[in-house]
């Protein structure tokens, strides 16, 4: 059982921000923003054309409000199109928004390509990598991972975005034990058993999966591996209290949710979101739009909106007015767990994952949160069955659920009634539940899908 200790306060990665007021941080960011816009205008034909189309030059941006009123410059569809054009015209795949010379690129990492061709969104110069390394080092230090120690790194290796994290791990003097997740559970667990790392990085679903597989594959429980911290990325899992507790209890260590170099969660027993520790890297999460109207919305404590990304310091491929598709809830109040006074975010889902059921907007994360309250009567594994392309769903929405290992099949009708009532109350929908035996909804070693698409 995880020993309770006083929660350590999260600090900004750059110590100068710990001495600044919120207003001073915003002023600092605006100076960086003005420099970055001028840099992008000078060095990228794509950004230059975007400004010229709307009849504005970077020096015309005098306030954040001026900036937030600009149209969206980039999204995944545009990014794919200008990547193709840059390959045809200039012989490189990075896109017309590249601001550096292609010769200066030392790392490129793509998105997964699950919604179309992969994009080379994570493309960095050596200067970019050195800058980003500091944020990874800051997170590892907070999690108690120090020079000379080892870290099990179980993501898809190679061209994928997570591989950029390896640079930051090594820069801290930490040795990554990088086992490609596609090698399978047995290989991951065997290397963990052999090398006894201090920490691990993986998806939450993989961390859960290994709990069940370890006794069978290596003859020991994951709690015997001696991990002191787990850093997870890419899924909502850790934000669900039952999943966070399950993983922490099984591994007997703290689990941290992180978003690349932008921030990480604190070591509180309760989850209070990703703490945004990098105001000199990005405007994240201060630029929000309404997911439906695409108009700017004011940031206040508890607001929900779609993130617009703008990177303030990167030189190779900075995203400017980039529609991320990520729906988040932003908190501006002090973290009740550790006392961090900056912004925090909780991920709600993706704009393209939103479902519309009888006129109500429903996100898979909300369904997952509600259903997780019924663990261990259910395993917590689920699939949302889509028989037609989203977002509109002809009710009832079908949800596949695994009943728990020790559930009495004679009581499933009552369990189903209680789950439906909870979803009706909290998500404004009443689904059709399809019961499945434990272990039949297979977990993926990368990102476990939440949708089963039958169209």
Major sheet characteristics: 12 strands, mixed
The fourth-level CATH homologous superfamily of the largest domain is: ANL, N-terminal domain
CATH class of the largest domain: Alpha Beta
Query: Taking strands numbered 1, 2, ... along the chain, how are they ordered across the largest sheet?
Result: 4-3-5-6-7-8-9-14-13-12-10-11
Distance between the termini: 45 Å
User: How many domain units?
Assistant: 2
Note down, in words, how this protein is organized.
It holds the Pfam family AMP-binding_C_2. This is Phenylacetate--CoA ligase family protein. With 455 residues, this protein is of the alpha/beta class. The chain has 2 domains: 1-350, ANL, N-terminal domain (Rossmann fold), CATH 3.40.50; 355-453, ANL, C-terminal domain (GMP Synthetase, Chain A, domain 3, 2-Layer Sandwich), CATH 3.30.300. The protein has 11 helices and 21 strands. The chain has a 12-stranded mixed β-sheet, with helices on both faces. It has a 4-stranded mixed β-sheet with strand order 20-19-17-21, covered by helices on one side. Helix 5 packs across helix 6. The longest helix has 22 residues, at 22-43. It is globular. It starts with 21 loop residues before the first helix and ends with a strand. 42% of the residues are buried.
């Amino acid at each position: 059982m995880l020993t309770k200790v006083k929660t350590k306060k999260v600090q900004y990665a750059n110590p100068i921000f710990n001495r600044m007021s919120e207003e001073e941080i915003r002023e600092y960011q605006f100076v960086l923003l003005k420099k970055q816009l001028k840099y992008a205008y000078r060095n990228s034909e794509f950004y230059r054309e975007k400004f010229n189309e709307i009849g504005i030059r970077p020096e015309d941006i005098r306030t954040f409000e001026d900036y937030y009123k600009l149209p969206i410059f980039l999204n995944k569809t545009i990014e794919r199109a200008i990547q193709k054009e840059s390959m045809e015209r200039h012989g490189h795949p990075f896109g017309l928004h590249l601001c550096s010379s292609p010769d200066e690129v030392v790392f490129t990492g793509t998105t997964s390509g699950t919604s179309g061709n992969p994009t080379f969104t994570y493309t960095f110069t050596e200067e970019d990598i050195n800058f980003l390394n500091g944020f990874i080092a800051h997170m590892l230090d907070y999690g108690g991972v120090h020079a000379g120690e080892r870290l099990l790194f179980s993501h898809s290796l190679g061209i994928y975005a997570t591989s950029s994290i390896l640079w930051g791990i090594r820069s801290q003097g930490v040795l990554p034990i990088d086992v490609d997740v596609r090698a399978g559970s047995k290989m991951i667990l065997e290397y963990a058993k052999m090398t006894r790392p201090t920490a691990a990085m993986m998806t939450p679903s993989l961390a859960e999966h290994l709990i069940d597989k370890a006794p069978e594959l290596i003859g020991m429980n994951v709690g015997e591996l001696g991990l002191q911290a787990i850093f997870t990325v890419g899924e909502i899992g850790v934000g669900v209290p039952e999943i966070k507790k399950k993983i922490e209890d099984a591994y007997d260590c703290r689990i941290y949710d992180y978003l690349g170099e932008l921030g990480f969660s604190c070591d509180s027993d309760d989850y209070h979101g990703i703490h945004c520790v990098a105001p000199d890297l990005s405007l994240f999460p201060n630029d929000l739009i309404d997911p439906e109207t695409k108009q700017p919305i004011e940031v206040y404590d508890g607001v929900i909106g779609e993130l617009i990304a703008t990177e303030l310091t990167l030189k190779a491929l900075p995203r400017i007015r980039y529609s991320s598709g990520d729906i988040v809830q932003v908190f501006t109040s002090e973290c009740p767990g550790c006392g961090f006074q900056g912004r925090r975010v909780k991920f709600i889902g993706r704009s393209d994952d939103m479902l519309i059921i009888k006129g109500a907007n429903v996100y898979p994360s909300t369904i997952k949160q509600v259903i997780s309250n019924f663990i261990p009567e259910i395993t917590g594994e689920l699939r949302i069955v889509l028989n037609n392309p989203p977002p509109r769903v002809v009710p009832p929405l079908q949800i596949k659920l695994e009943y728990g290992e020790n559930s009495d099949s004679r009581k499933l009708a009552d369990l189903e009634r209680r789950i439906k009532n909870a979803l009706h109350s909290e998500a404004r929908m009443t689904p059709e539940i399809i019961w499945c035996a434990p272990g039949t909804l297979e977990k993926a070693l990368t990102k476990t899908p939440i949708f089963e698409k039958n169209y």
